[in-house]
Structures are given as structure tokens and as C-alpha cells.
Design goal:
Layout lengths: L3 H12 L61 H17 L31 E2 L18 H9 L7 H11 L4 E5 L5 H15 L6 E4 L3 H14 L7 E4 L5 H9 L4 E4 L1 H10 L10 E4 L2 H6 L3 H10 L5 E6 L4 H10 L4 E5 L9 E7 L5 H11 L5 E4 L3 H13 L4 E4 L5 H13 L4 E4 L14 E4 L6 H8 L9 E7 L4 H11 L4 E2 L6 H5 L2 H18 L5 H9 L49
Parallel strand pairs: 1-8, 2-7, 2-8, 3-5, 3-6, 4-5, 6-7, 9-14, 9-15, 10-12, 10-13, 11-12, 13-14
Helix pairs in contact: 1-16, 4-5, 5-6, 8-10, 13-18
Length: about 600
């Protein structure tokens, strides 16, 4: 067990490399809309990455986007630096390298939470980028009174900056590329123009919104239905992990808007009789950078071929990466580009702290922190499914209302966990990065990084779950003697030096909990083994030797496929039983992908 001197040495090492002075940032606006979506035009297939529905061999609905969920969670600093350097090089090629000072962590792939990119594309025009004037109401933007009424019911008095720029352009029929931070109201920025066009020309299957994750798709549906409540807009949510037949029935009712993950939507286009998007008027791609990061590129190419060329397309992203630029050129016609706060940073209303501790007592410090924040709404992020499940059991055994959220849970369990957390039924959510992107969970008081992300962009996504839409929020990163360099790199990229968390340095109070925590740790491990939850590490190694998939090593959305693996390819284990054959991975059924 590391000595106290090791932690002291780590502190000294951190103090020796101060982070740069933070740049001033603009607070986000009041609107709590989710991320906005983007669209693509069928003018040719964009050169994107691979993606689609990937059913895990064990039959669980592994929908999480937790790309970092390694089973042993031992991603090295050196490895992350290499990846960050590659990402920075790609961003440089596209003219989008961020202004952050991080060692190559100027990620082109910064997702919705705060990757802000100020470069201009030659492919499309730019909207006026002057300093924002006085706040505008939706009526001043040209929105119909029926939709203004819905906005008022939702508490949206004024348009946010991204809405003020994007909505007028979209209402004129222009294709739009929108770049903005998380919590900036991007969902309403693309939903309102679609609903206004639907009011003027009501048709079934009028618009399609593509989202990278299931939870984000449900969130977008909820907001579109709320905004369209005064005009009777109907939506269908089409995602993996749910029954294909019930989704086919929903599509047969001809909804106005389809919100979908790309893989499952492609399944229905291929296999659901009578369903097509030949008359589609609007296509939106939400979190386009994330869609392409998750290897949805080939599926998006196919979708673009299945929809009309003459349509309106909106594409929303956190950054203009090389991949997004290629997709833009392939799918949008003479787009106008609007961007707000696209700098690679966190919001100014977020207070960021660290808490030093010996690695051996990490769980004890987490329990102490949970005890100090009793009654607060807290999200704890872990790197692995195993830790997410283990910590949720540990905290529950100690009397804390904790609930897990990760890719090994069924879709209904994941939605249930989110619902309980949002409603206040559970005040602590233990999650992998499946919850770090795109989700608008209101009133999160504190975000805890149990594991420091190996990539700074993931840190920004995580802490972006709090301090949303102009609210204040706090984040605490647990730092052991092995994590100092990662902490310094995050500080360099965000431009903000974290402060030590107040009240966390009372080591005597923390260690009083040590015995109880140790007992709960042993009980949690026993429960994991008995129920087979969260992945058994030894069993996982055996699975890999047999060539099977270990879900603890890949907590990914089942709307994805492995690179190079054909749809419906052979040799896998199908859900419906049997090995090999043409239906491998689908259980021998065209409808086997869930």
C-alpha cells in the first residue's frame, strides 16, 4: 500500500507544473434543451466510419457508448497521449485545432460538452458572427404563435444564442451546420424549424433525427413532443434493445417525426414491410462528431441513399472534425454555418475540484464524499462496467440511494435508472461514459470522476452533466498518486487549475469509515459473483481466449458493429440459438438484431 509520502510527492509533482491561466468563457444560456442534431443530404455517400447494430454474444443489450470501458481500466498515460496527438494532427489538417494548451489533447473529436471550434469551413457560408445582441424571443425569430406557446409552457422565454442564429436560417429553407456547447439548446434549434414546416405542410414521416445513443434519442423525442404538443406532432423512437415488431407497428402508424439510432433505422428500412423514407423532408444528425466516432459512417452512407436528394438537412456537432467535414460535403447543399462558444473548454459556471488520496483507500474517500453530499444529486463516473456495478452495490450496502447505469443493463433497466435519478428516487447515479454525452439530466449538483478519463475530451463531457444552461455546478476528480500527470493534462487543456475540494482533507474522519467500507467491499464482490453482474474478470479472460466478447472490455452501443465485421456475417453466436451460418450474430433471423 502506498505511503502518505507517495501522495505528498504526487502533490509536489502537481505543484511543480502549474496549469495555464484560464481564459474567460461565456456562460451558457437558460434553455435546457438537449443536444441538437444534424442532417445529411443524399448527394453521395460521405466517406465515414463503420457502424451499426452489434448484438453482444451474451444476449444483453449493450448499448453504452463507453468506449473507454476497458475491463481492467488500465489505459496508460502514454497511450492516451499518442491518441491525443493523432487527434490533434487530424484537427490541424482540417484547420480546427483547438486553442487549448494541452499536450496534443486538442481533440477534433470533442463532443457535445464543450469542444468549441472557431475555424471556418470553405464549403458553406457563415451566419453573422457578431457579438450577440439583446436576447430575442421566439416570435422575433419568426416562429409561429402555436410553437411560441409551447416554448412558453416549457419555460423558454428567450432564444439561446445557437437558436437565435440557427432558427432564422432554417426557417428560410437553408441547410444548417450548427456548432455549440452542450446545454445550449441545440435540440430546440432544429426541432422548432421542423415543427413549423410540419404545421405549414403536415405529412407523415416528415422528418428523421439521427442520434448516436438510445438515451439521447429518447430525450430528443420527449422534447420534440413537448414542443409539438400544440400542433399534434407525433414521434416514434426507433433504437436498439427494443422489440422490432412493436417498433414496426409504431412506424405503420405513420408518425410525423422518427428519432432513431442509425443501425436500428437501417434494419427497419431493410426488413420492415411498407416502411420507407422516400418522402422525407428533413434530416437531422445530432452529435454528428459522435455518430462518426462510433463508426456509424457506413450505415449513414446507406441511409443517405435511401432518402430523397431534395430535402433539408441540419447537422449539429460540438466540433467540425475532418470526418464531419467530409459528411457535410456529401450530404448538405450550400449550408450556412452557425457557431456559438465552440472553444475547447468547460463552462464558467462550473467549479472544478480535485481530491488527493492513496489508491488503496479510494472507495473509502468516495463513501466519505457521498456522506458529505447527502441529499445532493450526484453522478459518479467510472471507466469500467465492473466498477460501476460494484460501487453501486457498495454504496447501497452502506445505505446510500445509488443506482447503476451502463451498457450491460437491458434497455428497460437503463431507462428505469435514468427515470429514477431524474425524479429524485435515487440521488446517486454510478455510470460509465454511456451517461456522459448528450443527456440533459436537470439539476445535477455534483459530478465525481472516480477514475480520471485518459482523454481530456471525455473529462469535459462528464463534467458537462452539471452546470448546464447557465446553472452553477461542481465537479470533483479523485486523484491518486498514479494520476497526477492525467490531472495536469486536463488542467492544461481546459485552461483552469482545479482547487482542492473543501472538507476532503480530514483524513481522520475518512479513515473512521475504513472498516465498514472494507466489509461492504467484500459483500459487494460476493454479490457480483453470485449474480454474475458487471463482468467477472477471470471469466472475461477465459471468454477472450475462446474468442467471445467480454462486455466489460467494450461497453458499446449495440447499434454499432466491430470494424470490418459485415452485417449478418457468419460464425457468431445468434440470439435465437445455434452457431455459425449466415445468420450469425442475428440468431438466424432477419429480425434478430435488438
Amino acid at each position: 500500500m502506498p505511503s502518505k509520502s507517495a501522495v505528498a510527492a504526487a502533490k509536489a509533482k502537481r505543484a511543480a507544473k502549474p496549469a495555464p491561466v484560464p481564459a474567460a468563457t461565456e456562460p451558457t444560456s437558460d434553455l435546457e434543451g438537449g443536444s441538437a442534431s444534424d442532417t445529411g443530404s443524399a448527394e453521395g455517400s460521405g466517406e465515414s466510419d463503420l457502424e451499426d447494430d452489434n448484438e453482444q454474444a451474451d444476449g444483453s443489450d449493450d448499448d453504452g457508448e463507453d468506449d473507454d470501458a476497458q475491463e481492467d481500466g488500465d489505459s496508460s498515460v502514454a497511450g492516451s497521449e499518442n491518441q491525443d496527438s493523432e487527434e490533434a494532427a487530424e484537427a490541424d489538417d482540417n484547420g480546427d485545432a483547438s486553442e487549448g494548451e494541452g499536450e496534443g489533447d486538442k481533440d477534433e473529436d470533442e463532443d457535445e460538452d464543450g469542444a468549441e471550434d472557431g475555424s471556418d469551413e470553405d464549403d458553406g457560408g457563415d451566419a453573422e458572427d457578431d457579438e450577440p445582441a439583446a436576447k430575442k424571443t421566439f416570435r422575433e425569430l419568426g416562429v409561429h404563435s402555436q410553437l411560441c406557446e409551447a416554448c412558453e409552457k416549457m419555460g423558454f422565454k428567450y432564444a439561446t444564442p445557437i437558436q437565435s442564429k440557427a432558427i432564422p436560417e432554417a426557417l428560410t429553407g437553408r441547410d444548417v451546420i450548427g456548432l455549440a456547447q452542450t446545454g445550449s439548446g441545440k435540440t430546440a434549434a432544429f426541432s422548432i424549424p421542423i415543427l413549423q414546416a410540419l404545421w405549414d405542410n403536415p405529412k407523415p414521416l416528415f422528418a428523421c433525427v439521427l442520434a448516436p445513443t438510445r438515451e439521447l434519442a429518447y430525450q430528443i423525442t420527449q422534447q420534440i413532443e413537448a414542443l409539438g404538443s400544440t400542433i399534434g406532432a407525433r414521434c416514434a423512437t426507433i433504437v436498439g434493445g427494443m422489440d422490432m415488431m412493436s417498433q414496426a407497428i409504431a412506424l405503420s402508424k405513420r408518425p410525423h417525426v422518427v428519432v432513431a439510432t442509425p443501425g436500428r433505422l437501417q434494419d427497419h428500412l431493410e426488413n420492415t414491410k411498407g416502411f420507407s423514407l422516400r418522402n422525407l423532408q428533413y434530416l437531422v444528425m445530432d452529435e454528428a462528431d459522435r455518430l462518426l466516432d462510433m463508426d456509424f459512417g457506413p450505415v449513414i452512407d446507406k441511409l443517405l441513399q435511401a432518402i430523397p436528394r431534395e430535402r433539408r438537412t441540419m447537422l449539429f456537432s460540438a466540433t467540425m472534425t475532418t470526418k464531419v467535414a467530409k459528411l457535410q460535403r456529401a450530404s448538405l447543399k450550400n449550408p450556412v454555418r452557425v457557431e456559438v462558444d465552440t472553444k475547447y473548454t468547460t463552462v464558467s459556471t462550473l467549479k472544478q475540484y480535485y481530491l488527493f488520496m492513496p489508491f488503496a483507500h479510494k472507495d473509502t474517500y468516495l463513501v466519505h464524499l457521498a456522506n458529505e453530499q447527502a441529499g445532493q444529486s450526484v453522478i459518479v463516473f467510472t471507466r469500467t462496467v465492473h466498477d460501476a456495478q460494484r460501487l453501486s452495490i457498495l454504496l447501497r450496502l452502506l445505505g446510500f440511494p445509488a443506482i447503476p447505469l451502463h451498457g450491460q443493463l437491458s434497455q428497460s433497466a437503463r431507462l428505469g435508472a435514468l427515470s429514477k435519478f431524474k425524479s429524485g428516487g435515487r440521488s446517486i447515479l454510478i455510470a460509465t461514459d454511456v451517461a456522459s454525452r448528450g443527456l440533459d439530466i436537470p439539476a445535477v449538483d455534483l459530478v465525481v470522476n472516480y477514475d480520471i478519463p485518459t482523454h481530456s475530451k471525455d473529462y469535459i463531457h462528464r463534467v458537462g452533466r452539471t452546470a448546464r444552461a447557465g446553472r452553477s455546478g461542481r465537479s470533483v476528480t479523485l486523484v491518486t498518486q498514479y494520476d497526477v500527470e492525467l490531472l495536469q493534462r486536463i488542467e492544461a487543456v481546459t485552461g483552469e487549475k482545479m482547487q482542492e475540494f473543501p472538507g476532503g482533507s480530514d483524513k481522520e474522519a475518512v479513515m473512521l469509515l475504513s472498516e465498514r467500507v472494507s466489509e461492504a467491499q467484500r459483500a459487494a464482490v460476493r454479490e457480483l459473483k453470485e449474480k454474475g453482474l458487471g463482468g467477472n474478470r477471470a471469466a472475461g479472460k477465459k471468454k477472450r481466449r475462446r474468442g467471445e466478447t467480454d462486455d466489460d472490455a467494450m461497453d458499446r452501443d449495440d447499434d454499432e458493429v466491430q470494424a470490418g465485421m459485415p452485417r449478418g456475417g457468419g460464425g457468431g453466436r445468434g440470439r435465437g440459438g445455434g452457431r455459425g451460418g449466415r445468420g450469425g450474430g442475428r440468431g438466424g433471423s432477419k429480425r434478430g438484431r435488438r
